[in-house]
Design goal:
about 425 residues, mainly alpha
Length: about 425
């Protein structure tokens, strides 16, 4: 989740002077977007959403849900995936410049990231993305030396796969309705009833259960997340990794001024595509039944796969253009500290919200409305900005980043920043 190097022997963590500030700012923005999408999921079971159910029907909560889908859903994990691939390119380039081996070290790095993600998912919150990114990230290694055209072709194929899979599902259901309508309806009814029972069990476990109950329900929910993630969004995530790899190898952000005119021209088109895609996503959220493949559901999936990244690209372009102005640079620069501690801040979201939501904390699971969850998320992020600034001024890594690096390198990494020596009197 950062652009630190990976290697062995002469490789070392990236120095502060070698960091590209805009990438840290973008990570900081991505952390906010992911938190806004995840916030309500700390208080509601995944089975509820998988079956299209809702606990809250007021206009304010419905509006918050629609705006979250429109502005954030699928936009910020796409940004993180893009930055992950770009970080891979930076790490690979720096390892080559140092004459260090890379592939084996990068694989070891991802194995430890997967272990951190697994612990996060089973012990804190089921909605972990680290495990998924680590597993998919291993597939980047064979693409390390591929040409940009090859990366673009593979990214296109990978983007198309989830949509093709959903189209096949829709076709199979429609054929089933022709030849075995009763069986199809019975299967859908059983699935809906199963999801309803699952949601009820989750509410009881999270709000009043003991640690064993929490582990059991969390494991079950995580299994669904991994299964759906690998099949539903896994190919797109790898495709975004490859897009990031191509941009990283082109050193796009290291030579950002040369690309600003193109960003200005592209921004209105990207915004138009992103708005159109977001509207289709919202209509799909309101009208499509997640358990029943439909044309509307397929259109929403197409929009999420192909047009949500357009909104992501608009966000990136807008931020890159804004930071060229001194006033906006002052406003956005503090987010770089959040981005430098991306892993720690991401895990902090889960720790804080689990303490608010689950039985071993305040036990508010199922009692916090989406609108209130949004306020809590914004408050937490606002607190993370000065906390992150304070931390990076004193330490080289965040706590989770330090653990990840120490495990990867096989030895504890120096944590504190070297203090400048006073001039001799």
């Amino acid at each position: 989740m950062d652009s630190s190097t990976a290697g062995s022997g002469p490789s070392a963590p990236i120095a502060a002077t070698e960091r590209v500030e805009i990438l840290d700012i973008l990570r900081g923005v991505a952390i906010l977007g992911i938190l806004l999408v995840n916030a309500r999921m700390f208080f509601e079971p995944i089975a509820l959403h998988a079956s299209g159910g809702r606990w809250w029907h007021g206009w304010l909560d419905q509006t918050v849900g629609a705006l979250t889908v429109f502005l954030a859903q699928a936009k910020f994990y796409a940004l993180f995936a893009f930055l992950f691939g770009l970080g891979f390119a930076i790490q690979s380039e720096r390892a080559a410049a140092r004459g260090a081996t890379f592939a084996g070290f990068f694989a070891r790095r991802l194995v430890w990231l997967a272990a951190i993600g697994l612990a996060h998912a089973l012990l804190v919150w089921f909605g972990d993305i680290l495990f998924l990114y680590a597993i998919i990230g291993l597939l980047l290694i064979p693409f390390r030396g591929r040409k940009p055209r090859t990366l673009a072709i593979w990214a296109g194929i990978l983007f198309f796969l989830p949509v093709a899979f959903q189209a096949l599902q829709l076709g199979a259901v429609e054929l089933g309705r022709i030849f075995a309508a009763d069986e199809i309806e019975r299967s859908l009814l059983e699935s809906r009833e199963s999801m309803t029972v699952w949601a009820t069990d989750a509410r009881a476990a999270y709000s009043t259960g003991d640690l064993g109950d929490l582990f059991a329900i969390r494991s079950r929910e995580w299994g669904l997340v991994v299964g759906v993630g690998l099949i539903g969004v896994g190919p797109q995530v790898l495709g975004l990794f490859l897009v990031g790899l191509a941009f990283g190898r082109a050193r796009f952000f290291q030579n950002l001024p040369a690309h600003l005119p193109g960003m200005r021209r592209a921004a209105p088109v990207l915004l138009a595509c992103g708005v159109a895609g977001g509207l289709v996503q919202v209509v799909g959220m309101l009208r499509a039944d997640p358990l029943v493949p439909s044309v509307l559901g397929l259109l929403a999936s197409i929009s999420q796969t192909f047009l949500a990244p357009a909104m992501t690209a608009f966000y990136v372009s807008a931020i890159c253009l804004l930071v060229q102005h001194e006033a906006w640079h002052r406003r956005l620069a503090p987010l770089a500290a959040v981005g430098r501690l991306a892993l720690s801040n991401y895990l902090m979201h889960s720790v804080v919200f689990s303490l608010v939501s689950y039985s071993y904390g305040l036990g508010l699971y199922g009692r916090v409305r989406p609108s209130v969850a949004l306020i809590l998320a914004l408050a937490l992020y606002a607190a993370q900005i000065p906390l992150s600034q304070w931390w990076v001024a004193r330490y080289r890594f965040g706590p989770a980043e330090w653990l990840w690096r120490s495990l990867t390198y096989g030895t504890p990494q120096p944590m504190r920043r070297a203090q400048p020596h006073a001039a001799p009197g």
